[in-house]
Design the sequence.
């Protein structure tokens, strides 16, 4: 059976990246080949990734196929929410205003700062000695 893809988008948060494909269906989520309840055990994070559906009143209209990598579960959940919002905007441009106002289209760019060469950490410096 062929899957008719309606929209796809990529979302990011910190170091996590999520690729989302929207398919007409009943609201089923599949993340990396596993159902979302097993992949994201936290109820609050599952509510967080469903926010774009709730705000745009499109819950239950689409199945969501997700490929997520990098970061942790919370970072991946933020990336999924970002990607889902972008995919919904791809389907209907009128939803953009609602999602933008709620902050769903804003990428969370906070990343861990890299360690600098010759130093102990990102900001930590070796102890200064005057003599």
Sequence:
């Amino acid at each position: 059976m062929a899957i008719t893809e309606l929209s796809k988008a990529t979302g990011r948060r910190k170091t996590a990246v999520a690729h989302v494909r929207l398919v007409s269906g009943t609201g089923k989520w599949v993340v990396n080949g596993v159902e979302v309840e097993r992949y994201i055990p936290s109820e609050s994070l599952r509510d967080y990734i469903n926010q774009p559906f709730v705000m745009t009143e499109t819950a239950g209209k689409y199945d969501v196929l997700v490929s997520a990598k990098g970061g942790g579960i919370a970072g991946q959940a933020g990336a999924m929410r970002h990607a889902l919002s972008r995919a919904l905007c791809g389907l209907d441009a009128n939803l953009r205003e609602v999602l933008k106002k709620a902050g769903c289209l804003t990428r969370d760019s906070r990343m861990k700062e890299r360690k600098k060469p010759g130093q102990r950490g990102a900001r930590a410096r070796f102890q200064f000695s005057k003599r």
